[in-house]
C-alpha cells in the first residue's frame, strides 16, 4: 500500500473537528541535509575512559587464547554415552518409523524386491524319459 493511500485513509478516520497540521510542523525530512544532521547528532562523544590509553587494560596471553579456542576431542565421552544404552528397537517398529519418514516421491521409495526366478529343476533325468518312452510307446 502506498503512503498516499495510507494518509487518505487516516484522514477519513480523523474526527471532523481536527484541522490539518500546518506544513511547517510536519514530521519528516526538512531538506536534503536533514539526514546528515541526524547522523551527527547520534555520534555525540560519550563520556568515559579513553580507549586509546593503556591504563587499566589487561594483557591477554596468546598461548592462553590458543588453549581456549583449541578443539576438544569428545570421542571418548560420546562412545561411553552411545554404549551405555543398549536398547535395540524391534524390526517392525523400525520399519514403521522408516515408512513414516520416507517421502511420497518415487525417488524416496525403496526399490521393489523382485523374487529371483529359480531355474526349473525336474525330478526326472533324461535316462528316465528314455525308459518311459520305450515302455509306453514301445520304441526300441
Automatic annotation (TrEMBL):
Keywords assigned by UniProt? Nucleus
> Coiled-coil ranges per the record?
none
For whether the record's keyword set contains 4Fe-4S, the answer is: no
* Pfam families the UniProt entry points to: AROS (PF15684)
**Which parts of this chain are annotated as the region Disordered?**
1-56, 99-121
**Protein's cellular compartments:** Nucleus, Nucleolus
Q: Which GO terms describe its cellular component?
A: nucleolus
UniProt key word Nucleus: yes
- Show the GO MF annotations: enzyme binding
Composition-biased stretches, type Basic and acidic residues, lie in 106-115
What are the Low complexity biased-composition ranges? 12-37
Instruction: Give the protein family.
Output: Belongs to the AROS family.
Task: Please report the name of this protein according to its UniProt entry.
Answer: Active regulator of SIRT1
Which organism's genome codes for this protein? Cettia cetti
The gene from which this protein is expressed is Rps19bp1
Amino acid at each position: 500500500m502506498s503512503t498516499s493511500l495510507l494518509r487518505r485513509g487516516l484522514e477519513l478516520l480523523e474526527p471532523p473537528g481536527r484541522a490539518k497540521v500546518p506544513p511547517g510542523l510536519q514530521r519528516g525530512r526538512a531538506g536534503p541535509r536533514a539526514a546528515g544532521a541526524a547522523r551527527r547528532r547520534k555520534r555525540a562523544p560519550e563520556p568515559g575512559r579513553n580507549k586509546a590509553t593503556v591504563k587499566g587494560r589487561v594483557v591477554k596471553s596468546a598461548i592462553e587464547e590458543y588453549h581456549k579456542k583449541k578443539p576438544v576431542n569428545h570421542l571418548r565421552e560420546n562412545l561411553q554415552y552411545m554404549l551405555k544404552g543398549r536398547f535395540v528397537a524391534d524390526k517392525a517398529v523400525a520399519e514403521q518409523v522408516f515408512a513414516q519418514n520416507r517421502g511420497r516421491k518415487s525417488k524416496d521409495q525403496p526399490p521393489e524386491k523382485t523374487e529371483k526366478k529359480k531355474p526349473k529343476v525336474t525330478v526326472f533325468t533324461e535316462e528316465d524319459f528314455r525308459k518311459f518312452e520305450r515302455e509306453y510307446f514301445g520304441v526300441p
